Amino acid sequence: MTVLAQILALDSAEANVAAAALRVPLTGTLVALEPLEQRHEHDLRLAARTSDWSLMPIDATSTEGFSRWFRWALSTISTDPAARFAVIRRDSGRAIGSSTFHTLHPEHRRVEIGMTWYARGEWGSGANVEAKLLMLEHAFALGFHRVEFKTDARNARSRRALEALPAQFEGVMRKHMLVRDGQRRDSAYYAVTDDDWQDVRANLERRLASRQASQTKPAAK
Predict the structure, then answer these.
(1) Does the model's pTM come out above 0.70?
(2) Where are the domains of the chain?
(3) Angle at which helices 41-49 and 63-75 pack, to 10 degrees?
(4) Separation of CA 172 from chain center
(5) Residue of 68, 60, 51, 211 lying closest to 131 (CA atoms)
(6) Residue 57: what are its φ and ψ, rounded to 5°?
(7) First and final CA of the chain: distance in angstroms?
(8) What distances in angstroms separate CA 170 from CA 7, 173, 192, 219, one per listed residue?
């Protein structure tokens, strides 16, 4: 699909068409995002064991839990208007986590980024910074006007990461979701709009450059 065709896909106001435009490989310096496939299962299973699923709807640290998540993620690719990605470390070629474009509303030029998780060893590595940069860049290039994020209101680490983009905090929806074991969840909502994008992109690029510089700095003798 050409860039022009991708942009025109939003005019169809069909979520599946917009999802197809979003579901393309994205390549950065540290990471690449590949549309989720069966071949990613082994690496993601290992990565999931060390991630934090305590405030997620499912616990994928166990073999059974991960299998449930992965089967669901693959089985809904053709039916759910979403674009699910495996995040790949370019230096090793290993899948280290996942993120998704979902809750598409092309008629309103609105999409959500979520269902994001990484192996614990990748926290603070710059992988999430670049993945967010790639996904936001792609969404706004296609013509979306607003990218939303939501997280469990209790998830302080996730909220700090969103505020560091910076995404604008827009409030808490109380008793918004029923999650694991029937627990009710309050959801904190954040968003980046096309008006915000220039400043957000500059900030993400600065953070990524700083992270890369710190990783390549020679050790003191």
Answers:
(1) yes
(2) 3-216
(3) 130
(4) 20
(5) 211
(6) -65, -20
(7) 52
(8) 27, 10, 10, 42
One-letter identity of residue 73:
A
pLDDT of residue 56: 86
* DSSP secondary structure code for residue 13 in this structure: T
3-state percent breakdown (helix, strand, coil) of the chain, nearest 5: 45, 30, 30
The Cα 204–Cα 146 span in angstroms is 17
Provide the token pair at 90: 């370019």
**Burial grade of 131 (CB within 10 A; 0-12, 13-18, 19 or more):** buried
Which CATH number among 3.30.1360.30, 3.40.47.10, 3.40.50.2000, 3.40.630.30 corresponds to the domain 3-216? 3.40.630.30
Q: What is the pLDDT of residues 160-175, one digit of tens each?
A: 999 999 999 999 999 9
d(Cα 26, Cα 48) in Å, to the nearest integer?
Answer: 22
Which residue did the predictor score with more confidence, 182 or 102? Answer: 102
* Six token digits for residue 202: 């500059």
Residue at token pair 């990565």: 47
